[in-house]
Amino acid sequence: MEEIPVKVAVRIRPLLCKEVLHNHQACVRVIPNTQQIIIGRDRVFTFDFVFGKNSTQDEVYNTCIKPLVLSLIEGYNATVFAYGQTGSGKTYTIGGGHVASVVEGQKGIIPRAIHEIFQNISENPSIDFSIKVSYIEVYKEDLRDLLELETSMKDLHIREDEKGNTVIVGAKECQVESADEVMSLLEMGNAARHTGTTQMNEHSSRSHAIFTISICQVEKNIEAGEDGSWYSHRQIVSKFHFVDLAGSERVTKTGNTGERFKESIQINSGLLALGNVISALGDPRRKSSHIPYRDAKITRLLKDSLGGSAKTVMITCVSPSSSDFDESLNSLKYANRARNIRNKPTLNFSPESDRMDEMEF
After folding, report:
1. Do the annotations mark residue 55 as ligand-binding?
2. 195 among the known binding-site residues?
3. Per the confidence metrics, is the pTM higher than 0.70?
4. pLDDT, tens only, 313-341
5. For the chain, which terminal residue's Cβ has fewer other Cβ atoms within 10 angstroms, N or C?
6. Does 89 appear as a known binding residue?
């Protein structure tokens, strides 16, 4: 099992019209033909992938995510998560938001990945695929099922199965047959998400959302061996998590008060816990020490993706505006630390088929 690092991409959105109107300068730029970014006068960061303000959704998907989709079909777990301050383009990049109304070229990562998965399935007629999706929101440290709003928060629990994979007990998993079906479930879940107006963004995501596609595949052709014995084919079960994290920003910038203020504190404590996990995993000196996954729900859910057995891409979205300099610098530092994390991706054979083999043996 070889270790591979978490891949980190940084995407800089263009300046918004209102920022141009208020004469904001761009303080982040990409060094042409490299994967490097300069912020401020002279701070240089290097990442696996860098997307400047003219990058297209297509480019982001093909460079970072397509390889993950192919790994998923091979039987590896995969995760992509979008991180960054409010209004930096996370939900746009990941393709949450109002999916149905988005024009083709603007579609984000999730819709593209869904189409690619179904495309791959149609090209593999010798394998039986079954696909399920679930959609969970972590709002103020409570889990909410976005596909089954009747489920009370008390009925959802995070557990680990015997292989150490994190599972959410009580979450609704919908069996799906087509890309359109997945899209309508995604649309339904997005409509139920907690968003709220802050000074920085009128549709700010106030929760972390995790959209998961699980694929179970079994080969169809079971042949008899030469001695007349039958051998069963293994089942492969793999999952792809798409994680849209809530915006990270200082409360003073969002102008939040009352309920929104409490919400910001919860969001920031979740992101702080995530930062602590990333730091602990990325620090070679802390190899054997405790990793604080249990400090927040979001870190427990991402345990497998950070330092676990999944292939992971982190996309950090950054605003180039000079007024967001501190926030952008923090996001880049955060992303830089994540590059030191190493995962050990493993193929996911279903435990049942392993047990059958043992019993037969």
Report:
1. no
2. no
3. yes
4. 999 999 999 999 999 999 999 899 999 99
5. C
6. yes
